[in-house]
Amino acid sequence: MYRVAAIGDRDSIYGYSAVGIEIFPTEDSQEAWRLIRRLAENGYAVIFITEQLAAALQTELDAYRDDTVPIVVPIPGLSGNTGIGMKNVSKSVERAVGSDIISQD
Predict the structure, then answer these.
(1) pLDDT tens per residue, range 75-84
(2) What is the pTM of this model?
(3) Closest listed residue to residue 18, CA positions, set 28, 6, 8
């Protein structure tokens, strides 16, 4: 059975544990990258990561973009939504259909 994890600052991810998601508190991007690799190797299917950490690891996270498992999902932290998650969705849709049908720029 696949597992689900959340990585980010404690205050942003603490609530996820209430619904059975395993939390891995960190604010250090290098530690977050090590966690992502370890979780991917240990059968985690979904890894939520705060947008702040995802922004710092954008190049590294691209390595998982074409993989089926794990899916790495940026989530807003306490500092609010930075738009990284929506940008990633837009990129994925553009790759799938050949045109950016989401952005309104």
Answers:
(1) 988 876 666 6
(2) 0.80
(3) 6
